[in-house]
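Technical appendix A lists one of the benchmark inputs used to test multi-chain prediction within the project. The record comprises three sequence entries:
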Amino acid sequence: MNNPNEAAAALATVAGQRTLVGEEELKADGRRWGMVIDADLCTGCQACVVACYAENNIAISEENRVAEGRAKTWIRIERYWEGEFPNAKARFVPVLCQHCDNAGCEPVCPVWATYHDDEGLNVQVYNRCVGTRFCANGCIYSVRHFNFWEPEWPEPLDYQLNPDVTVRTKGIIEKCTFCVQRITRAKTDAAHDGRELEDGEVQPACVQACQTSALVFGDLHDPESQVAQAADSDRAFRLLEDSGFEPGVVYLAKIDPFAQEESAAHE
Amino acid sequence: MSSPERAALELSLRPAYRPKPLRISMTNAVVALLVVLGVGGIAAYVSRIAGDGGRESWAYPTAVLMVLISFVAAAPLIAYASRATRGYWGLPSRRIADLFVIPSLLSMVILIPVMMTLPPLKGRANLWFDFAWGAPFFTDVLALGIMLVAGLALLWVSLVPDLAANAGDMNKLPRWRRMLLLNWKGSVRNWKTVRVTVKVLGAFYLMAYVFVAMVLTTDLGQSLMPGWRSGVFPAYHLISGIQGGVAAIIIVSWLIRRFSPEAGQFIGNEQALNLGKLLLGLTLLWFYFFYSDFIVVWYGRKPSEVAAVQVQTASVYLVPFLIAVFCQLLIPIALLIFNGVRRNLNLLAPVALIVIVGQIFDRIRLFVPAMTSEDPFAHSYEELPNAVGPDLIDILFIVGFLALAALAYLWAARRFPIHSGWELREGAMLREERKFMKTEVLVLGKPD
Amino acid sequence: MQDPVTVDDRTVDRELLDFVMRTPRWFFGSTFALAVGLLAGVLVFLTMLNWGLQFLGYSSPVYWGFLIVNFVFWIGISHAGVMISAILRIVQAEWRRPVTRAAEIVTVFSLMTALMFPLIHSGRPWRTLYWAFPYDWIRGMWPNPRSPLVWDPSAIMTYLTSTILFVYIAMLPDLAIARDRATGPVRKTIYGILSLGFRGTSRQWRIQAVAGILLSALILPIFVSVHSIVSWDFAVTLVPGWHSTTFAPYFVIGAVHSGVSAVVMAMIIIRKIFHLQNYITADHIDSLTRLLIAVAATWFFFLMLDFFFGLYGTEPTEVDTWSRRILEGEWRYLAVIFALCSFIIPVPMWLFRGVRRSFFWMFVTTVLVNIGMWIERFMLIVPALERKSPLTFAYGDYTPSISEFILVLASFCMVTLGVLVFSKFLPLMPVADIKEGKIMKQEMKIGRADVPATIRE
């Protein structure tokens, strides 16, 4: 097909057909979607950030937006420096919406635009959001972003928009959804084919793009899934655990075999 | 229009009204019972001192201490409020309230051994910023001492005109007695000074009391319990203390009216109505302060804070909490919303007694878990502790010290005039009934 | 205790209804200027509707700034109404009489203004307007009752409704006087309808008085709950510096502090421009200021509680917020100005009788208090958000923009315009109340002294 719009239209038709599956079949099965991020494997390459941008129709943040502090990245790589020159080290911590079980953002939305679904996802309903930004204040990880301006994609960038994801208007909050469109697509496909979802079948964009496989996604309640086995580690910790938010993202601490000697040298 | 008692209005007509102390017979059965209980309390105190129980054994005595700081020490604040706002209804209540500083002296007796059992400050949350000069022992004892001295000074100054009136001819008294009566001559300057001093000392007592509440509730409560962090708690303690103070004044007013006709003739409808309104208002305020503490912790769901609330309110000390809520909130509100209850001292007194009982349980549920916490240096409870019940000595302590407080008050009422004669007389001079159009109205003078 | 109103009833009517009956020249000029200010605010709002919130100073994570500060500030000012008219009426303080109507009107307009701000600062105000209302407009979706932003409109609307009712009932006798004195058929008809046939019979007076007393008592819990609910917008989150149990009583007392100061300031201005020297005397300002001293001291106590217990647990983010508010950080100069303006300069000055009775000094000090309290709201809200999370990549900065300054200015214009236009059509001084005060005024002879007295209500 030459015309990209025709291709998109054809895909949409297929997608439309695929959604004609009953709700019963799409129901959760005690599932809890979660992610394990191995800080030891993360190189800080920001491929996940770019993939997320591409997948989720995130608005282009130009220089002036970054200077204003309004750059939108649903996942950001936090880089912490340890030590001093010549032994300075960078530690990379990708931070995205933690999809907390006990989220601080959920009870405060006046219009129910954000809620916890029964699969452990923290859902953001764009067309319900009125933009009071109370949820953004309630999130201690600061992963919620507000659309301060009406996003624009000058040609031909508008061809790259993902038809599965809403293009958000100004004045509402958005955040990482664990690529809920991919989750729903996978569930629909599985229901259509009359089978169970397989472990690893659902891969959010960031997980898919990570070159070192530092990000693992899956069902934390399934003891045989990759993610549950990865989470069951001595190195596991969660961000800001004292808050009681019960995040759904487990981090694995970086292993630094030279740590001991360094501190001896510095003392 | 609520009627002040006829006696109060006519007071200004009587020449040289001399207020008298109450005639309390020490052979009265109730007094004898109080003495027996008081001796039991002293025995419990000695037993605690002699024993080597450490901080946990002083848990219930701390609750008693905080009860004494609550309603007993807060009563003089009602007198100050009445003086500062020139509320005529409070005139008979002023000396009744001021006298409560005598029983509150017992708090110092308990405070000192309790402070000696506290662990060092370093490593746990505290208000003192690692203040090196003896905090918290010296600072708390000093604060309480200053408050008690201020209260005693207030009582002393407000007693001087009455005692001087009863002393007869001042020149015939020995010098030391004249000095005790501050060389009172009854001149215009004397009167001006006593009026201003009483107000200033009242304000100072208020400031000292607020400081003591903040410091003692933190050092004996919040600093000892992991995860308990509440800025409004001193204010909550303050307001519930004042609520108890009003309740205490109601009870004493009722007792006076019931058992002493000559003193009781000044207490009537007007006092009941206003004290009842105050009690209702303070009960609602109790709920407000409790709720503003509760909602922030409950909504925020921070595990360390939630654990602390679970210990004090929701699960471990649930029974004392429920008793406290019923007695300090639900029953008083249910009864005090009725005008008939508020107007009648005979109905107000049982409500006031219920409030005080509730307050005792409230202090138990707040301070016993703090004093019995295993690890005050922890950031948060790892698991909920078990409730610590009172043993026999604790019960004897509670009952005994309350009896001692009552005995101290009785001694003071026997020794000093129960009504502030000079203020009553002044109030009477500033009130009169007049014919106005077709009716009679009460006219109140409002000098600057 | 106050200088008695010595003029007779007809003069009272004439002087107090003067502004209603005739329009001085300065009215048009000032109304125009205020309307221009308000219009500027409306224009800014329209740009926000069109281009989103990008011209405001917000960024991640400081998503609430000047507009919410302004909201809290105006809710605070609105507390003066109940404090003065309801509470002072319940304790039967005679010196409330000239002040009650102005306080209540300032309350009504500041509540209306305050309500605007959560609407205009939200991303999609055209939806916020009706989706926060307790009705399932769209697809059976009700608003979220767990959210403090849903408790807010309920509380504020309740407060607004009851204050309007309160003002109206207290105003009935004055509307009747205006009806009787009005010339021109249109005015007479309108005042006639508004005064609901009030003729001053003893039955009507009794009903009016009882209604006023009942409303005074019923409005008290609303008064306490409104600002507490607004404070819980902040206290229920885990933002360090916001997560404090003192917020509810602290905000309420702060509201009374700033509100009563604002009313004193308004009264001094009103006295000047409407020539009400006979009715608002130094005694009234003196008594109001004594109340202010007690309120300011209580407010300071709660501020100290907030401060000490904020630092109490030595949690790093909390300590950091306080140190940024006061010691280091860009906001420390503001903190100094705040401390000086809200407490350190005014309150010790108020301890002196000469200052309390001087209209000039009271005006200066109350203006200082209002500036200080606005800054206090700002210090409470914004620095805490800037370093909300211990994750350093979430740090942000806040720089207020011109649009926000214009919006804040427009809110001041709106309230002033509201009060001014109101006073054009309805009397700003409670005429009947003042006449009642004249009747209640008595004198007693005690010995050789003449003591002022009042009849007890």
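Chain A has nine helices and ten strands. Residues 4-18 of chain A form the longest helix (15 residues). Comparable benchmark entries are summarised in Table A2.
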